[in-house]
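Regression report. Comparing outputs from two consecutive submissions.

Submission 1:
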Amino acid sequence: MASSGKRTRGPNRGTAWVRNPDDGVSVLRLALDTSDPLQRGRLEAMYQGAYQVRRAVQRRAKNACRAYWAATHERNDQGPASVRDRLGLSKTALERAAYAHLNAAPHLRRHVTKALAMNLADGVWTAAERHLFRDASGNRHGALRIGRWYDFTRLPGRARSHTRERKWESFRLHGTLAGHRAAYADGSGDFVQPRALQPIDSGDAWWKYAGPLALVFSGLADGTLVLPVRLPTSPCNQPILDHHLTDPSRWHKIDVVRTQDPQSPGGWRYEAHLMVLTQPYVSGSTAERRARSAIETADRTVGIDVNVSNLSIASHDTGRDMRLSRVVRDEPQQQRDRGRARRERRRQRALDRSRRALNRQHYKLSRRQDKRARRRAEAGLRPVEVVPAGPRLARTDGVPLTSYRADQLSTRYRRLRAAQVACAASATQARRDRAREVAAGVVAAHGYQIVIEDVRLPAWSASWGRAVAAFSPGTLIAAIDHEARAVGVRAGGSGGIERASTATTALSQHCPCGERVPKRLADRVHACPRCRLRGDRDDVSAILASFVVLTERGVPASARVDYPAAHDALGEIRRALRSAASTYHGWARHPVRVNRPLGPRWIVRRVVDAHTRLRRGGSANRWHGRVFNPA
């Protein structure tokens, strides 16, 4: 890859390297071993120095943006570009400001290089650019803010050169996967890593190094920073490592990210996010399942009705072989969610007590505390120091007099907050894993050409709040869309979710025969006076969604319901609503069959009886999460 042409001074006259979009991009998270206190101290010092440089550039950019918006007459007379040039609002100007700050602070040059300062300045310019210029929707981002130390978690890396083989970046991964496995193999040949990895020292011969993987940062005044990489040792993760780490020429960029972890040395857990120019890893079983789904469901169209606590799914093959399914939460999962919510409330109360104890001047006394203080004052007793339990001092419109960002926080508060973030991240990851498994079962059973109503799920939180957060319909829809697109690619066509406007379809207010059947939100049973079709409201809406036709892809307003085709399939619709079917699990290890009963958790249940009365009433929270079990 080394350039063989003659090199000259000045701008590069060669053809710039451009990434091939067909190669794909994948990110692999590599854990860094910071058990060595010397290397951990150097990494923490690098974070401190980088934070000071970025804060200085942020202040400069923030003041320049304020001056830019204040210079109204100058912008009107001379143009915005000239004002930005005068104020130094450009990528190059911010990079030079970072260089100047680094040169004026000799103590920072021990831990921060100009390459890292340039990457930090580029990140600040990205935020300033979003504030100065409108996006495609015509909106601007808010004003720049000075980041806090605990929010500074990422050290941006520099992309490697794809035209020169030996060219240093800010962070670089050295070593090989084979060398790493050979170095940490036990007597039986199993891949086992010790609790504390040994320090790695290759001198200056990093280009020829082929040992265990290590993150290297060269060019520092105190010498090269070397951090050993800890790889997962479970057998299920080895194909993923082979996919990403076998070919070093596809390693593109590395960012170092830290996360608060009270259990880690120093209170932070460090990771290297390696960007690899390759497609994301897909296991052999997943590829086989998607290929089978692409063949078996090629002619099926799917409609999904999204609700607060369930998803109703209907599919058919040109009006034949109608299938109905439902996704709900089961009782064990509800119990886990209730336990998690209980722990979250306890942790939140502890956080509130800690904040109030250190910032008593920002809170009022409660009524009981105020009454007790007056009673003691009238009796001539000395006042008692208590933690105020009243509301925060605020203006008449409810805005706090002092921002929460200015509060003093204890070490215990930060530890509790880190535990809260870790618990929330774990729950989110588990929810996404379940959603992917549910999506695999739905697409395998119904198909990959899906239509749903164009609704704004975030707006539902204003009405149902916790119910929406517990069921997470948005996560399920995103997972189904991703799986459907992947199956569509395997089929050689286009798959995924298309959205239909509620104004042009009104699925919940119509019958497949074409008759308009008005219903309130509390009416959960569809009863058509024309064709005498009775069934669950959500299932009928899903059936109508499967007959939606879009004249222009990606335009919800172009959606129309093909009522003649739905009317011709009324017999099949009645049969599907009356027929009994088994339940099937949403995330089985193998492709899910419709008539294959599996265990509980999230359940995708086919509707058994359309004449069952659903006594939900008008409250969504009352029936949230219950398994629909027709009698």
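Submission 2:
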Amino acid sequence: MEREDGVAHAPRTGARGLWDRLVGPESTRAENGLILGYSVVFCTGLLLYTTIAQPDWTPLQRGVVVLVAFDIAGGIVANTTVSGTRWWHRPAQTRRDHLRFVAGHLHPFVLAWLFVGLTWADAAVIYGFLVCGAAVILATPDDLERPVAMGVFSVGLLVALYVVAVPNGLEWFVPFLYLKLLPGHLVDGRRDRKSVAKSR
């Protein structure tokens, strides 16, 4: 349940504190189940598919892809839970913090290093659009943030489909990365609920 003041508790210490910093303190059992369950199901399906469709992948390639998939798939869910939203949009978080978080996702370059089918130029395009798109969303007034984020994300899908080329088995990567960060991480869904409540 969301606190009335909308402020997140401080993370716990130790390993649990690390989890709190990823998904938000006070995350519920249901939220944790969704985050972990979706990540495991997606990664299992991806691993089975690539084992059959891409048998020439090395163990290193397969392992890194599963780690990247777990991070992105889990983040898609975690960024939009009540606990996650409350944590990532707590008062202490600035727009610069959000941009720094997005910019820290260097996944395209990691995959370009591992797969010859993803060129460094395409990795730069993927990353460049991500950071520029985030900057546009963060510069948008709060009441237009969600529609602008969805518009930026839709353009990102076109980039994924028609501009860059990724190896077979990684077709999901760019759309999922953009979904996690642009309309997912950067948009504070609580504003929508507050706007609806005020209009009643």
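Expected: both submissions complete independently.
Actual: both completed, but the second showed a warning that disappeared on reload.
Relevant detail on submission 2: The radius of gyration is 18 Å.
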